[in-house]
Every structure is written in structure tokens, then in C-alpha cells.
Design goal:
Elements (H helix, E strand, L loop, with lengths): L4 E2 L7 E5 L4 E6 L5 E2 L2 E6 L8 H10 L1 H14 L7 E5 L7 E6 L10 H18 L4 E4 L11 H15 L8 E6 L2 H16 L1
Parallel strand pairs: 3-9, 5-7, 5-8, 8-9
Antiparallel strand pairs: 1-4, 2-3, 6-7
Helix pairs in contact: 3-4, 4-5
Length: 196
């Protein structure tokens, strides 16, 4: 079990949200520099790296992550949206990487919210299955997949707050945003949801 820390970062903003069994925190930083039991990768179905967070995690983690992802795809086929699998952390500070595929935004009527919630929920389930007390998420699907950040923030908050009511692990959940605008949008949406 690791205490979640961000190495080599000056945290400009951090919001801690206590729950009865765990806590969640929002921070600005580089997820590849987070020391935790697991970080989550916003992957594509092929699991072999790409742009954005996915490419950054594969570059920082090295060949071990690529090889493990390739073995998973060779055995089970492409990872469907809303599902999650786990590999080692390779050269990362995190012990594991949980790879999940979020939905591509198609206007909101194609089950995107359910798929996004499933991506977070399945990642939390895998983290619990592997005994991960600390897990850090990037913002899934809000980059190249085009999911509106405000809508994603509400889905993420509802999913995490529901999950932690029934599960003791992970004990600490981090939401790590590279861009300040993403952090600000999520903070605003989550603060609004907490007041409802």
C-alpha cells in the first residue's frame, strides 16, 4: 500500500473530499509522476499506446507495459469501451497501470454516460481486486474522444461517490488533471454536485 504522492510536481491546487470509507482528491499534475498502487490509463481498445495520456504512460512506463498489453490483446482481443484490465507499472512510480477505454462522444444519445461510468467503476473494481489502496485517474474521454468536460465531471462524481459507499478499497482516489482548465471545470462541477 502506498500513500499517493506526486513526484517532481508543485501542486498548484488540490481539493480533498472525505467520504466515510475513503477520500478523493483533485489535483493538477502529471499522472506519469504519481506514486500510487495504481494509476489509470485512458486507453484505446488496442491497448498499445496512442496520443495524450495513453502515449505518455506507455513512454514513461517502457516496454514492460507495452508487452503486457500486447499479450492481453493477443489472448482476449481489443478491450471494449467501459471495461478495464491491469498490468505492471513498468518504470513508473505506480505499481500497476489499470487500462480502461472510455466512450467517444457522439452527442450524448449513444450510451456515453453509462460507458464512462463503467470505465471508472470497472477501474475501481480492478483496483480493489488487486488490493490497491491508492489509485489515480486522468480525465477519461475528455480529450481526443470529445466528451464534454462538464458532463464528464458529473458522471465521474456520481460514479465515485456511489462506489465508495459500498467498498473499502481503494482508500484514496485521485483525479489528476494536466491542464488547469480541466481541474477548474471538475472542481466547479463536483462542488455543485456536493451541494445538491
Amino acid at each position: 500500500t502506498r500513500v499517493m504522492r506526486s513526484r517532481g510536481l508543485r501542486l498548484l491546487t488540490m481539493l480533498m473530499i472525505p467520504f466515510s470509507l475513503c477520500s478523493a482528491r483533485l489535483e493538477r499534475g502529471d499522472i506519469t509522476r504519481v506514486e500510487a498502487d495504481a494509476i489509470v490509463n485512458a486507453a484505446n481498445s488496442g491497448l498499445l499506446g496512442g496520443g495524450g495520456v495513453d502515449g505518455a504512460i506507455h513512454r514513461a512506463g517502457g516496454h514492460a507495459i507495452y508487452n503486457e498489453c500486447k499479450a492481453i490483446v493477443d489472448k482476449h482481443g481489443p478491450l471494449p469501451p467501459g471495461r478495464a484490465v491491469i498490468t505492471s507499472g513498468g518504470r513508473l512510480l505506480a505499481r500497476h497501470v489499470i487500462h480502461t477505454v472510455g466512450p467517444v462522444w457522439r452527442g450524448g444519445g449513444a450510451g456515453e454516460a453509462e460507458t464512462l461510468a463503467s470505465a471508472y467503476r470497472e477501474s475501481l473494481r480492478v483496483a480493489e481486486q488487486y488490493g490497491c489502496a491508492t489509485v489515480a485517474f486522468p480525465s477519461i474521454s475528455t480529450g481526443a474522444f470529445g466528451y464534454p468536460r462538464e458532463k464528464a465531471a458529473r458522471v465521474v462524481w456520481d460514479c465515485i461517490s456511489d462506489y465508495v459507499k459500498h467498498h473499502a478499497l481503494p482508500a484514496e482516489i485521485g483525479l489528476v488533471f494536466f491542464a488547469p482548465v480541466d481541474l477548474a471545470i471538475f472542481e466547479k462541477q463536483i462542488e455543485g454536485a456536493r451541494l445538491v
